[in-house]
Write a structure and sequence with these properties.
It comes from Crassostrea virginica (Eastern oyster). The chain crosses the membrane at residues 6-25. Initiates complex N-linked carbohydrate formation. Essential for the conversion of high-mannose to hybrid and complex N-glycans. This is Alpha-1,3-mannosyl-glycoprotein 2-beta-N-acetylglucosaminyltransferase. The structure is a single chain. With 243 residues, the protein is an alpha/beta fold. It folds into two domains: 2-83; 90-222, Alpha-Beta Complex (Spore Coat Polysaccharide Biosynthesis Protein SpsA, Chain A), CATH 3.90.550.10. Helices cover 53% and strands 7% of the residues. It has a four-stranded parallel beta sheet with strand order 3-2-1-4, sandwiched between helices. Helix 3 links the parallel strand 1 and strand 2 (126-130). Helix 3 runs parallel beside helix 4 (135-148). The longest helix is centred in the first third of the chain and has 46 residues, at 38-83. The chain is rod-shaped.
Length: 243
């Protein structure tokens, strides 16, 4: 409203000034005035009119710029209002824990810590994805699945990956990559989660593990240049950290 009022005031001043100039010009008597010839008066009048027209043109140009800036600011505000992402909280989102396992029966240690520090089992359900077909490890996972309602999924493809001779020594890495792809597809496409925390079976987590990811999740959601948040700590070993 203030901007519309300002535009109205500028227009009124502009019209009033033109009317006054017109009245002053047409009210002058013809002939000589104080020794000034008619030609001189006409030249002076022409100069006054040209200056006034130039001034009027500047006012109109400023008015146009003002209106353009006003429209541009309104457009920017509309864009910001429609494109600014809605603030999101980790507390409002289900974020599962995806535990990647293979042939380590010590996966029980990682599961114990995940269960111990989990502040909300409904908001952070645990999913264990196992490859390798290692029966002792599968038995351990199954025991936890029955006792703590952990979801147990098995990678269906345990076949060797055909590789040329130089790459055969990397067979294990190719299998891990294949397993990760399959497990993430299950989380995002089959179970319809929008985010996930990935843990491997030989990792220990700290007491603030869940709190850390809850605090950083809004940052990950709001910044499109971020793809993930990492909690990896090369120095996170017994004797080097307090917990």
């Amino acid at each position: 409203m203030r901007r519309k009022h300002l535009v109205g005031v500028v227009v009124v001043i502009f019209l009033t000034w033109n009317l006054l100039m017109y009245y002053m010009l047409v009210s002058k008597n013809p002939g000589k005035i104080a020794g000034v010839s008619v030609n001189d008066q006409l030249r002076n009048l022409q100069g006054d009119i040209e200056r006034q027209l130039s001034h009027n043109s500047e006012l109109l140009q400023q008015l146009r710029k003002f209106r353009e800036n006003e429209r541009a600011e309104k457009l920017d505000e509309d864009i910001r209002r429609t494109t600014t992402p809605r603030p999101i909280r980790a507390e409002d989102t289900l974020i599962p824990i995806l535990l990647i396992a293979c042939d380590r029966t010590t996966v029980s240690r990682c599961l114990d810590l995940l269960i111990k520090y989990n502040p909300n089992k409904k908001r952070c359900p645990i999913i264990v994805s196992q490859e390798c077909g290692h029966t002792p490890t599968a038995d351990v996972i199954q025991r936890y699945a029955g006792e703590y309602s952990i979801q147990d999924i098995k990678h269906p493809n345990t076949c060797e990956i055909p590789l040329s001779w130089p790459q055969k020594k990397f067979q294990g890495y190719y299998k891990i990559s294949r397993h990760y792809k399959w497990a993430l597809n299950q989380v995002f496409h089959s179970f319809n989660y929008s985010a996930v925390i990935i843990v491997e079976d030989d990792l220990d987590i700290s007491p603030d593990f869940y709190e850390y990811f809850s605090a950083t999740f809004p940052v990950l959601h709001q910044d499109p240049s971020l793809w993930c948040v990492s909690a990896w700590n090369d120095n996170g070993k017994v004797g080097m950290v307090s917990e």
